[in-house]
Specification:
Number of helices: 6
CATH topology: Thiol Ester Dehydrase, Chain A
Distance between the termini: 25 Å
Number of domains: 1
Oligomer: single chain
Shape: elongated
Number of strands: 8
Largest sheet: 6 strands, antiparallel
CATH superfamily: Hotdog Thioesterase
Order of helices and strands: EHEEHHHHHEEEEE
Helix content: 10-25%
Strand content: 35-45%
Amino acid sequence: MTVTANGLAELHALAGSDLGVTDWLEVGQDRIDTFADATDDHQWIHTDPEKAARGPFGAPIAHGYLTLSLFIPLFTGLLDVRGVTTKVNYGLDKVRFPSPVKAGSRIRLRATLASVDDVRGGVQIAVDGTVEIEGGDKPACVLRSLSRFYS
């Protein structure tokens, strides 16, 4: 379920809130291959299913930065900020990749709106996110993302 903030005042009121969890998203080999093409990272653990099956993970795995990049489309399913003119990814304070995402796995995001702070012309939010792997005992990615919203 998406949490909606109508303007910056409502966003401030959500500071510290658990935003919930998204639906599952499959990370298929086609997505991994497309990411490899876009980034020129064709390491065999990502793009050679036969060789990767004999490798350390037993299957091809998603690039860590592919998993990280999926934070944005997953996050937009958790928080909708309306009444602002501009939304900007400001950066990351922390990123870790505790467990690889095997091709064909499903992931989802669990997130908390850690803080909402005023900046000139808007606010900066910090979101603590955990990208979970279906059936996994460790997360794929743990991060703190920073975004800015301007009115």
